[in-house]
Input
Amino acid sequence: MRGSGGEVNISIIIPMLNEAAQLPDLFAHLLPLQRAGCEIVFVDGGSTDASPELARVAGFQVVMSACGRARQMNAGAAAVSGEVLLFLHADTRLPQGAPHHIAQALSGAVLWGRFDVCITGRPFMLRVIAHMMNWRSCLSGIATGDQAMFMRREVFLRVQGFPEQPLMEDIELSKRLKTFSQPACIHHCVNTSGRRWETRGVWPTIFLMWRLRWAYWRGADASELAGLYR
Output
């Protein structure tokens, strides 16, 4: 399945929960991609702020799902038809030419990948955090959801989608995908919101995330870690 100009057919899957405040900006970002041939689906996990209604009025497909990012992304993957699946957080924006970059990245034996990330916000440390995330991801071959993970549908199905756990689903999926190929690391940045760090405090959030990752690496249960995260 190929789009015009030899590009791969890409389905963009966006899990959401009470994102009405930022949806107009996200719609403006996505409409050119939709016009260019990308299939776009929002997967709502039970919003109470009219998010699904806004997406439908804007002309996007909406799928309803049980709450939970992994469940929502799996539900979205089951509802789309593209040969490449791109999972995009509602507070993340793709770089110019993203479909072309993805097509190039997947033109050989590589089956999945991610973008570099830039974190928007006032604190200078957000730039340092983004640099460290990208560096760590290049070394480890592990991607995070903030980096707009993408993969061929065939390999997504072979690993049975995202593990339906409440936290670290992106890390666990990366581990499984690495058994098929190393990821493509696209060095054009997605821009993601720094609201998580600004709301909780930059340094407390850094320490929390490293603590959770260390615990998960040592075998801690994702459900227990999700309680700490919240």
